[in-house]
UniProtKB/TrEMBL annotation:
InterPro entries: HSDR_N. The keyword Hydrolase applies. This is Restriction endonuclease subunit R. Keywords: Endonuclease, Hydrolase, Nuclease. It comes from Dyadobacter luteus. The keyword Hydrolase applies.
């Protein structure tokens, strides 16, 4: 896999049925290593190592319903009360983050109502704060300290 615009981290990869799998420290198992998973694993480690989130607050590929359609969130950080705090949509490095991706996280916002929304393809990263139905662009991602001060 190619280097991303995210900090490197130590990872474990093994072959399962001839396909590479990477160890996910949140789900505590090896998962198939796709380009999107490569981005997700980098972002998980970024949130833990640089933004201070404990592993216990992560929910990975959590199911949800939107207009009777089953959807999955890539990364969700929960508050101490178990409500969505930060929702991250990961894309493969070759997928441009454009209107379709922003519309997707907008739909997730409508359903889950997290305080913060983010999207990344491993090279470009965007974060937004949802306040009273308005979405505001942020220069950086919220830290665990932000979660505790909300």
């Amino acid at each position: 896999m190619e280097p991303l615009n995210l900090p490197a981290f130590e990872y474990k990869v093994k072959q399962v049925n001839g396909k590479p799998h990477i160890f996910d420290i949140i789900r505590r198992k090896f998962v198939q290593l796709t380009p999107e998973e490569w981005v997700r694993q980098h972002f998980i480690h970024l949130l833990i190592n640089q933004y201070g989130y404990p592993k216990s607050l992560f929910a990975i590929e959590t199911g949800m319903k939107y207009n009777k359609l089953a959807k999955r969130t890539d990364i969700m950080i929960l508050s101490q009360e178990g409500t969505p705090f930060l929702l991250v949509e990961c894309k493969a490095p070759f997928v441009k983050i454009g209107e379709a991706t922003l519309a997707q996280i907008g739909r997730y916002n409508f359903t889950l109502r997290p305080t913060y929304l983010a999207t990344t393809n491993g090279f470009s990263h965007y974060c937004f704060q949802a306040v009273d139905g308005q979405i505001h662009y942020m220069d950086d991602f919220p830290t665990y300290r932000n979660l505790n001060s909300e």
